[in-house]
Amino acid sequence: MGAIRSFTELKSRHEELAPLLMLRLGEETAPRKRDILVCGGTGCQASESEQLVENLNAVLREHGLDQEVRAQITGCFGFCEKGPIVKVHPDNVFYVQVQADDAREIVESHLVGGTHVERLLCLEPTLDQRVHRQSDMSFYKKQMRVALRNCGFINPELIDEYIANQGYQALGRVLNTMTPAEVCALVKASGLRGRGGGGFPT
Prior knowledge:
Shape: globular
CATH class: Alpha Beta
Helix content: 25-40%
């Protein structure tokens, strides 16, 4: 990817890259059939999530699905005790405690056969049954992610995905359409506080 030298180029690059995230946003015109996101947090990496990605992609190639389906690392889903976590888009099926050896079953049962892998679904304690979607889990239901909203949604190692997800747009607006005084006023009005424990007011 070449350097982006203007706000206009940034907006143009965003338009070019937007299809990368279509499946995760539920858009039916996506160029692929499915995205498989595997948690890349440190806990999940310690439990071989990177090997899981390699295994998933290998089985996808075996079945000739590697042009239609892509498995890749994403940021931490936040439910570390249930890792490694795998999320399949656009189905929004959420698998927990997935081992590298489970890759074949996920591909052959879910992606090829159309049947979710029941044993890898999360057991929801409030219902005493396994649930298929992250949004049905009590752990997530009341969460509203702000600073961490891209974790579990984009690949943190691919800057193209960040740009596809409106990355740098706020910076572009600040540098090209606002005065310094307007920027200061906006920051003050936001009520943003420091992170890291101090919580210093703006």
